[in-house]
């Protein structure tokens, strides 16, 4: 457990005479937070003292972005806070509850950041109320929130969310929205779109332009989603966190208003109430909006008639100095009208939902009745009786028709097994006893072309040439054959033809070597072989005391350069690439021709029918093409057969008293052996097993029991990790009881 430490206690708190709240909004496009306080002076409202917004592009980063955003908003505010209100996408909410798949994230954020969750509100409801407060009345429009990978569409009618749906974000958002309306055959759609969110104002402007250019009047048969071209408006200058703050502040203000009104109603006797001013027979009402045509920029607001009908406000009458009898305080909080900057009373306040730790702030349908000013006692009694009968009727309904759904999560254990099955063309049906499944032989031909960049290197050029004098140091005639190699300084040269050299001769001053000239050519390309005259050379296959040579003149003509050629490695690479592509193509075609089957790539036999390269290995080239035609043959088997036999084999191996779910089994097939008409497959199976639970026994034990007793009984099982007890319709925990009829109890057992 974390120690109880206030967030941002390192900041200077010079405003903590007020109570501050935190709005945390997780939308499709951003994470946004705001620190705010209630304004208790005349007019009421709220005041934002700290704000931060982070773009959201990866759901895995939500925790980090919320932490950073709260830290920045806290630094900006410089105050202490703890109570938090969350603004969440509608897709996270079902039946006024956060879905379990998202609730754990909210719980973790609150625990890690040590904030107290008091309520949550759907984003589209908060936005609708925020826009209404700014423009003077409830909106009627289609709200479109653009996220990084999703688009949320909400249909708002007179400030009430009638419909909400998330769509995958595509390159054509207007078409996706139109298809949604068209497929659902939605009627009476508002002829207005309000777009918000997106990663930038440029993207929002581009989407607004796409909506304006889209043909909304197109029909599908006799159905038309729109009868008039809808008006499109992109909203950029507002904060989602502020919208949540406004709706929450209005909700709190509504509750405070009811409490204040209740306190002003005092007890009295049966005497007639005396007032300083005459009380009219019927309460006077103030119409919040004048009856006038909607303006062009009104965002689809309906002013006048609808608002007047919905928002009649009784004129307050001050009580006399005598005590008057107070009506019993209702258990339902009082709804109130938020005082917006234009002083219009707002309707359709988005109700905040309950989160763990604090009571829900909601609305009371009887509040207008209880908020009336001093009336005669017989009216008070009448309304009290009426409310009592209504509450009794609701209680009877709750006790007679509830159904319970209990989700029990049990602890699991990893369970791995390995089996060998044979897919064979001889089988007609799958058999778990013989571990065989039917197979079908298939074959296909395919061809293609692939090019690769040549990467080989080769030196080309001219060889140096010159004339050498060969010296014979023996007493006999010597013939030096063509091709004889002589070297000097690491360079080698070869004779271009046979050279006949006379023997040495004796003279007065001594012996004179026999000599003869011959043409030579360098063995390698390059200028290095252009040697100077009078350079001594040594024969590779003759002793220097027998034959030697010397360059008669300077050699010339030697040159060299590097070129790119098609190499052996290039040939192997391009063949491998094309073979792999053709194999993938063959698998896809076989799968397409044989739906609901599986084919193992490693079981396919490939035979090359023909192949051809554009160039030969060693040829100078920058790129080379390769053509191949091949045939592919294999066995395929039914996906259902392999899944069913895997499940049956696992079931036979699971220890007694344990269960396994088919959808939890993971299958990894590996080819062991392949012959004509047979394929041996090793199935590597992994799953999770859990203790078997007798749901009928549990239902019989908990019927008619209180929520606490149900919890105690289920938790008594050692393998139970957690459980949920949901009653429909819902009841408070202190009277929440399992139905007496076991047929009205549904128990789901799920692995942890």
Task: Give a structural overview.
There is one protein chain. Helix content is 24%, strand content 35%. Among the domains are: 20-122, 2-Layer Sandwich (Nucleotidyltransferase, domain 5), CATH 3.30.420.40; 403-411 and 700-751, no CATH class; 464-556, Elongation Factor Tu (Ef-tu), domain 3 (Beta Barrel). The chain is an alpha+beta fold and 752 residues long. Mean pLDDT is 80; it is low at 1-16, 265-349 and 354-377. Strands 19, 20, 32, 33, 34, 35, 36 and 37 form an 8-stranded mixed beta sheet that branches. Strands 3-2-1-4-7-17 form a 6-stranded mixed beta sheet. A 6-stranded antiparallel beta barrel has the order 21-28-24-23-29-30. The two termini are 22 Å apart.
List keywords for this structure.
Elongation Factor Tu (Ef-tu), domain 3, six-stranded mixed beta sheet, alpha+beta, single chain, eight-stranded mixed beta sheet
Task: Write the topology of this structure.
Layout: E1 20-26, E2 30-38, E3 46-55, H1 62-77, E4 83-88, E5 93-94, E6 97-98, H2 100-113, E7 116-122, H3 123-135, E8 141-146, E9 150-157, E10 160-168, H4 173-184, E11 192-197, H5 201-213, E12 219-220, E13 223-224, E14 231-234, H6 240-263, E15 285-286, H7 305-310, E16 313-314, E17 353-354, H8 367-370, H9 377-400, E18 403-410, E19 412-424, E20 436-453, E21 456-472, E22 478-480, E23 485-488, E24 491-495, E25 499-501, E26 505-507, E27 510-512, E28 514-525, E29 536-539, E30 547-551, E31 559-565, H10 568-593, E32 597-598, E33 605-613, E34 623-638, H11 639-653, E35 658-660, E36 666-675, E37 678-691, H12 695-702, H13 707-715, E38 720-728, E39 745-751
Parallel strand pairs: 1-4, 4-7, 8-11, 11-14, 18-39, 19-20
Antiparallel strand pairs: 1-2, 2-3, 5-6, 7-17, 8-9, 9-10, 12-13, 15-16, 18-38, 19-37, 20-34, 21-28, 21-30, 21-31, 22-25, 23-24, 23-29, 24-28, 26-27, 29-30, 32-34, 33-34, 35-37, 36-37
Helix pairs in contact: 3-6
